[in-house]
Specification:
Elements (H helix, E strand, L loop, with lengths): L1 H10 L17 E2 L22 E3 L3 E4 L10 E7 L3 E9 L22 E7 L6 E7 L5 E7 L4 E3 L7 E7 L2 E9 L11 E12 L3 E5 L15 E6 L7 E16 L6 E3 L3 E13 L2 E7 L52 E11 L2 E10 L3 E5 L6 E5 L3 E12 L2 E12 L4 E14 L2 E13 L14 E14 L3 E10 L15 E10 L7 E15 L4 E14 L3 E14 L2 E14 L5 E15 L4 E14 L5 E17 L2 E18 L4 E14 L11 E14 L5 E12 L5 E13 L2 E2 L1
Parallel strand pairs: 1-14
Antiparallel strand pairs: 2-4, 3-13, 4-5, 5-11, 6-7, 6-12, 7-8, 8-9, 10-11, 12-13, 12-14, 15-16, 15-17, 15-41, 15-42, 17-18, 18-19, 19-20, 20-23, 21-22, 23-24, 24-25, 25-26, 26-27, 27-28, 28-29, 29-30, 30-31, 31-32, 32-33, 33-34, 34-35, 35-36, 36-37, 37-38, 38-39, 39-40, 40-41
Length: 744
């Protein structure tokens, strides 16, 4: 198989399209102040648009190769003393096919028509604030990090939008307060802009205001420059956002027993953000509310080696979030479980960007206990003071940075991590990056929790280097990691330590015409060993990625894997797959992923045969109602005796979410989730339950004026198996939260 993959890679250049130079980025665009008022209502006839700069040259980069789009897009850009404005007109020969559902904020995604504005107000060609708008005027905002291509929808910004569908297509207006932007103290200003139109029809067409060469490793680096921006306000901006919440919880001692009500949990808190200038933000919080009104995505946690990762969604941690995005994930702010207070500063001085935060964590979460072949958890039932600081200095398209994290535990113990990182980008086809960290740890004296917490001292290092090379045809990504046994990053997400690893992903891209628009065969190769040279894992993965009609995305792989479990080296072979497609306005996305073949039984240290299937679908019977269905099942068969197989376990998750959006601000959401695991205890070397299952249901009503002025009303119901194998109630929750943002 590996030989076949190599021959396929070698022969693909004959199939690839000839190298064509991409068009140049359009010349700088001078802006003029709006000569009159602009009312954000979706009507583009306001006097303020008369002198606006016009962007009418666009490039279709998917499906085409920077060709002229088949549909016309025009954007207008202007500003005044308080706001930055963008208007976009999206012509459409068949307006009835416009995909414009009512969805919640940040759910403006690639299945539907939308426009995104990327603003590089620091003019560093490194990151950009992203402001999306749909034909319904619904918003989605993010930070786009060119250093690694991450598009992070966690941050939220204040801005206003309005849109309307017309007989010729749709059009939208976007008004961004200057206080929502971060720009240096300079006059005149030079910013970068990219306007992107998502046009999903037979293909998912991507239409940009700047050309995007096939093979480029950056997006923001090709932003069009905006000039002539003068006299911007330097006045400060203050947001004070208090909240009140109450939660009433009733729990049963055992499933099926009567519920016992506890005291109602009432909370009052405050978030404050002050921008003394456009380049500096100061954040403070007292008893912040970090409740999760959106349930975490269900993940099967049976037979996993390492801890599972969940994204951060809490506002206090998200200012300048791109500064925490380093090669080694030494910052994972969800490890700060229950802050009593917090303070933070974020800003830019010349070519240097910085952020620093200090908070007191009241504890209650878990600490990852990493190792070379697996990770575990220990309860963090003690308070601590956490400090995190990061500074980055830019040099053209490259940068160097420093990171510090520290956790001082109540009573005794600490974890401190410090070190540099850098990225060198000589052109838009090469990116070299690296990070070196040193940790100093004194573990808590809590041997009753875990034997590792005996007050021992640990000092070690973590190193990661990478090289990303991409052209129109061939591309590769190579990475080397070296993590010491004693390295700890208690403020990060580092579930594996004590190993050295080399990784290579190499492929060849070509762009056929027809049902498929992109094909990339590839080969992954990886080897990791412990600090004494013992093999941990060795694997080769030939595969194929496809992109095509109706936004078809498919990836097929064969994995040849050898991995150490306990003290044994076990070999497995499996086939993995992922496929999804966006068929229509009503069936917006369906897909499945999983594997078939051999897998390791981690508890009993042996090889079995099994698989997993995760299927998902999004259906919109109307533009107001969205149904999201997810189902996952995982199973493993092992030898009960030679020649006779038996089912070790079957684990499944079934989840249905129904959301009715009354308008762009108000929705009602119902979620039902069933989780079940069946095991054969006779096949385990340790005691395990034969059957465990649970059901969780929730209802949430939400009304949001903006991301910090909102009302939430919620209800939750939890159930587990009782003695009769029936799902009996274990918990009932009622929840209300009201927050309001005062701005000056």
């Amino acid at each position: 198989m590996a030989r076949l993959a190599f021959l396929l890679l070698a022969g693909l250049p004959m199939l690839a399209a000839a190298e064509e130079p991409a068009p140049p980025v359009p010349p700088p665009l001078p802006l003029h102040r709006a000569p009159g008022p602009i009312v954000v209502d979706g009507d583009l006839s306001d006097p303020g648009w008369k002198a606006a700069a016009v962007i009418d040259t666009f490039f279709e980069t998917v499906f085409g190769d920077n060709r002229a789009p088949e549909v016309e897009t025009v954007a207008w850009v202007t500003y005044d003393d308080r706001y930055f404005y963008v208007a976009v007109r999206c012509d459409d020969p068949e307006p009835r096919k416009i995909r414009a559902p009512y969805v919640d904020r940040d759910n403006v995604i690639g299945t539907d028509d939308n426009v995104a504005i990327f603003l590089d107000t620091r003019n560093d060609r490194r990151s950009a604030q992203e402001f999306r708008v749909s034909p319904r005027g619904i918003q989605g905002d993010a930070m786009f990090n060119d250093a690694n291509g991450n598009e992070d929808f966690s941050p939220d910004f204040y801005y206003s939008t309005a849109a309307r569908i017309t007989e010729a297509g749709w059009q939208a207006e976007v008004r961004i307060p200057l206080s929502s932007l971060r720009y240096p103290k300079a006059d005149p200003q030079k910013w970068g802009i990219i306007v992107w139109r998502n046009y999903p029809r037979e293909f998912r067409y991507a239409i940009y205001s700047s050309p995007q060469p096939r093979g480029s490793t950056c997006l923001v680096c090709r932003a069009r420059e905006l000039t002539g921006i003068t006299g911007l306000s330097s006045s400060s901006h203050l947001v004070v956002a208090p909240y009140v919440s109450a939660q009433d919880v009733a729990r049963a001692d055992e499933p099926g027993r009567p519920l016992r009500r506890g005291p109602t949990d009432k909370n009052v808190g405050l978030d404050v953000k002050w921008n003394p200038s456009a380049s500096t933000a100061l954040d403070a919080t007292v008893n912040p509310d970090f409740s999760q009104v959106e349930a975490d995505v269900a993940q099967i946690a049976v037979n996993n080696r390492f801890a599972l990762f969940f994204p951060e969604k809490r506002p206090f941690f998200l200012e300048g979030v791109d500064l925490f995005d380093t090669p080694i994930q030494a910052v994972y702010t969800r490890t700060i479980t229950s802050p009593g207070w917090g303070a933070r500063t974020t800003g830019k001085l010349g070519s240097s960007s910085y952020t620093a935060l200090l908070t007191r964590d009241r504890g209650g979460g878990s600490v990852i206990l990493p190792g070379p072949t697996g990770s575990d958890f220990a309860p963090q039932d003690f308070s601590s003071v956490v400090g995190i600081a990061r500074v980055r200095r830019d040099f053209g398209g490259s940068f160097v940075g420093l990171l510090y994290t520290g956790r001082e535990n109540e009573g005794a113990g600490h974890n401190r991590v410090f070190g540099p990182d850098a990225q060198w980008r000589p052109n838009d086809k090469e990116t070299v990056a690296g990070q070196l960290l040193v940790s100093d740890t004194i573990t808590p004296r809590r041997v009753e929790v875990t034997p590792q917490w005996d007050g021992r001292g640990l000092t070690s290092h973590a190193l990661e280097t990478s090289w990303n090379h991409s052209t129109r045809g061939i591309d590769w990504f190579t990475r080397y990691r070296d993590f010491g046994d004693g390295f700890r990053a208690d403020q990060g997400f580092v579930p594996q330590v004590g190993y050295r690893e080399g990784f290579l992903n190499a492929g060849y891209k070509f762009f056929p015409r027809g049902s498929l628009s992109f094909v990339r065969p590839f080969l992954n190769a990886e080897q990791a060993s412990d600090r004494r040279g013992g093999l941990i894992t060795r694997q080769a993965e030939p595969g194929l990625f496809l992109f095509g009609r109706h936004n078809l995305q498919a990836q097929l792989q064969v994995l040849f894997h050898r991995e150490r479990t306990a003290d044994r080296l076990l070999s497995t072979t499996r086939f993995t797959y992922l496929a999804q497609v966006d068929p229509s306005r009503r069936f917006t996305r369906v897909g499945a992923s999983g594997f078939l073949g051999q897998a390791v039984d981690l508890v009993n240290v042996r090889v079995g045969r099994g698989g997993s299937v995760t299927a998902f679908a999004t259906v919109r019977p109307t533009d107001h109602l969205t149904l999201d269905a997810n189902g996952a099942v995982s199973w493993l068969d092992v030898d009960r005796e030679p020649g006779r197989r038996a089912r070790l376990f079957t684990a499944q998750v079934q989840r249905l979410k129904a959301t009715y959006n009354f308008d762009a601000r108000t929705f009602l959401r119902l979620i039902g989730q069933y989780v079940s695991t069946r095991r054969d205890p006779s096949l385990y070397l340790v005691s395990v339950p034969g059957h465990s299952a649970g059901f969780s249901g929730s209802a949430l009503f939400s009304y949001r004026v903006n991301w910090q002025t909102a009302l939430f009303l919620g209800y939750g119901d939890e159930r587990a198996l009782d003695e009769r194998e029936q799902l009996a109630r274990t918990e009932r929750q009622l929840f209300v939260k009201l927050s309001y943002a005062f701005q000056r």
